[in-house]
Amino acid sequence: MRQEEIVNEIRKKCGDVESFPSMGWHFIYNKRHYFYMTRKDEQTMRFCIPHLVKASEYNEMLLSEAINDTNRNVKFIKAVLLRCGSVSLDYDHKITSEESADILVPHIINTLDFASDYLLSKLKRI
């Protein structure tokens, strides 16, 4: 699976895709900002929502509980509290020759979208 195929599938699902040299591609889906990160290792890829919420807007213990719950209950996703104070959602995937971008890319975007709704719903209950 080539990078060009991945970016084309993002375009099909999300529309505009903006290149950030040496970082990857930025796009918007359901009003959230996403990144497809380029890697020197072409065997893995990362999609992420780099800033879902600001940690300072939530009680630290309750935010940690919501992040841990998301990590336990949503497959493939890693919710992370970054040093800058943002909560990020990451989807890392090891690419195999049997996979195709037209199936994988929409799955990853949909999974991140689901995970973001899941985490936000947990935070609303707090």
Write a concise keyword list for the protein shown above:
126 residues, alpha+beta, globular
Short description:
This protein is an alpha+beta fold and 126 residues long. Helix content is 40%, strand content 32%.
Describe the protein:
The chain has a six-stranded antiparallel β-sheet with strand order 1-2-3-4-6-5. The termini are far apart. The protein is 40% helix and 32% strand. It has helices at 3-14, 60-73, 101-125, and strands at residues 17-20, 24-29, 32-37, 44-54, 78-81, 86-94. The model has no long low-confidence stretch (mean pLDDT 92).
Number of helices: 3
- Tell me which oligomeric state these chains represent: single chain
The unreliable regions are none
Per the principal axes of the C-alpha atoms, what is the gross shape? globular
List how many beta strands DSSP finds. Answer: 6
Q: In whole angstroms, how far apart are the ends? A: 41 Å
Structural class: alpha+beta
The main β sheet shows up as: 6 strands, antiparallel
Widest sheet: strand order? 1-2-3-4-6-5
Percentage beta strand: 25-35%
What is the helix/strand order? HEEEEHEEH
> Mean of residue pLDDT?
92
Overall helicity:
40-55%
Radius of gyration: 15 Å
